[in-house]
Design goal:
93 residues; mainly alpha; Four Helix Bundle (Hemerythrin (Met), subunit A); Colicin D immunity protein domain-containing protein
Length: 93
């Protein structure tokens, strides 16, 4: 689970671009999920982050094609919200 948290933290600290995060996080999560190495209480939050990554679209013109696509701000908000749930820590920017 440390790899998942480190990936989230790297994104929130600006060390990973939204594009890179949206590729890296679901891949790391899938490996943990497939191995059954996650505590049940975290799965919903990690699922929500992974789903948000799947809907992330950096191009605003492409986001116009589908209301479910999200931009950088929406992705960051979802990640911050779920990270706070996972860690129990309030992130102050």
């Amino acid at each position: 689970m440390n790899d998942l948290l480190r990936c989230i933290e790297d994104y929130l600290e600006g060390n990973l671009s939204p594009e890179q995060f949206s590729y890296d996080f679901p891949a790391i999560y899938a490996s943990y999920f497939d191995d059954g190495d996650l505590d049940e209480k975290y799965i919903d939050a990690f699922d929500d982050i992974s789903e948000a990554c799947g809907w992330y679209e950096p191009n605003p013109l492409h986001r116009e094609d589908d209301d479910e696509y999200i931009g950088e701000e929406e992705l960051r908000n979802k990640v911050e919200e779920k990270y706070q749930m996972i860690t129990g820590v309030l992130i102050i920017q």
